[in-house]
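Q: Entry one of two.
A:
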Amino acid sequence: MTTASASAAMRKVSLAGIMGNRGALWAAVILMLLLLLVPVALPGYQTLFRTILMYVALAYGWNTIGGYTGYVSFGNVTFFGLGAYCSALLSAHGVNNLFADVALAVVVNAAFAALVGLPILRLKGHYFGIATLGVALAITDIVGNLDAFGGTGGLALKTVDEAHFSIYYYAAWLVTAGAIGATFLVARSKLGYAFVALRENEEAAAVLGIAPTRYKIVAWAISAAIAGAAGAVFAPANGFVDPSIAFAEDANVFPIVMTILGGIGTVAGPFIGAIILSGVNELLARWFIKVHTLFFGAVIVAVVLLLPRGLVWLFGLRGGARTWLKSLAAYKA
């Protein structure tokens, strides 16, 4: 591929394409500010909204590697689980400090992602996806068989008293705000353009001097750090972790679907998708207690089929239903 053709391929990478709809971004910022009031205005719903914030952070983590670079990971729950166990191990050794929990989780997960990413990120397409899933299954099995991690019996963590329990909510809010802020900064930087260039045409990006493996490792390290930070806050708030909790299937699948619903490779998309899908899941769980997973599965299928580019893209769509239907016909996964 020549430099001229590579430059032509990269011209379709615009700031709007990286950032997404600005109106959606402002809506996300306003909603995040309103979520600060939950412990005061809706104290009985702190756990619910803290869980939603956790999924928002996980969605942003996945969006970095899956949305911006186009490398679909099916194993990001690995980093969430390792982050949770970082907190659990610190608590077991008498350290009960959320700042220490998050800091350790960020460092450990970023380093682990960089180490594992060296061989895995040389794979492409479904080979990469299968490899990440294999890593998640392997780590789950290893943790479950090591006494230092409590084995399958898990580890209990010391939690604060009920009067100060809102500290976990605010910690989750800060982690989520940090994930949104990091995504915003990446999207407006040369790093963001490099990520998207790899997604659009890796060969063209290489011709322009972008080292594919290096940038993919950076993207996965950022993704891992965000997911790890979310896990580090989740563990002490939950008070207990074991492999089935730390590496739960929901924490692996939901963030992917949430990002798709909101808009892959955008700043506001993961937030909007997580808020809507979490609300739908909660309502279905209340109305259809026994079969809510069936209905939720149908919702996931509908999202993938009808909104493959996400709600953020739909917000800026011109031409109404006809344009939307044409886009569905022309869309290629």
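Q: Entry two of two.
A:
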Amino acid sequence: MVPKPPLQAACGSDNGFSPFVESSGQAPCALIHGCIANAINGYLHFLTLRMLPMSLSKSMRLLRYPLVLLIAATCLPLAADETLRVMSFNLRFGSANDGDNHWDQRKQNLVTTIAQFDPDLLGTQETLQFQADYIAEHLSHFTYFGRSRMKTPNEHCGIFYKTERFTWLAGGHFWLSETPEVAESKSWDSSLPRMASWVLLSDNRQEMAQPILFVNTHFDHRGGEARQKSAELIRQRIANLSSIANDPRVIVTGDFNTAVESAPYQAFLEGNDQLVDTYRVLHPDRADEDGAGEGTFNAFQGKTNGPRIDWILASPAFKILSADIERRSFDGRNPSDHFPVTAVLTTHTR
């Protein structure tokens, strides 16, 4: 993996971010299209007054000019509405003593599960380096970004993105603690050091659209206070990054180790820069009071009861086309002890 520059180094005058953000929030081509449309409308109104007493030949000569403007407007690029496929997948760390469910017994099925959904953005949890390497080897159209949560080799909150589709702008890592810049730090009642990784990407299919800030994380499995503080920290980090990164569209994936409607969940969904739960938007009714039927931790047993602890959160700017829990199995065996969750999004940029 080629090291990438930190966001702070990327925020000078030659920062790679779009300098063409107008106060209206429109992209440059959208503004140009609007100006041309106004010019055409004004000119056509002028013609209605001038052409009536003229001969046909003179009238046709006058019509040349709005036609030229119309052709110019047609040739200017507009940002297309493109779908964006997102997946979050806790891989189950590959060195675990899982018997028949050991990484070597399931890694091919796991890659098949990813390939069949074909995500543009993939956030993984409990990812060890050799697991990231295996996925990257077999799905070579991805670029991988991640690091150990410890100073020694350990789990990553790994991010995969399609190399051809996205241009890297910036990226980094921070720890879910009171000292987020200190590697391996932990605070509150967290049982282990926890972290988040993020990338800022430009979508090559939507060059006029805002960049995408993609954050991937894994909350502590024991500390309730730590999960709450971690949600608040990530919200603050998103706000800070958004203020200097051209107001990006935001996607957050992760294993949050807490149920929906919990305090950490609400911390993401409330406030001025709130996110939305992509699954709940399309599935507003829980199966029952215990959330049976939408559980995402399966313990390699395929169970679907229990809480939905794996989420894909997104900016309200995204329209959610689909959101699912992928329960694919192979001869009765699950590729991980968590079901991956998916969402298909789009943004209207015209």
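A: Comment on entry two: Helices lie at 28-50, 56-75, 103-117, 129-138, 224-244, 263-269, 278-282. The first helix runs from residue 28 to 50.
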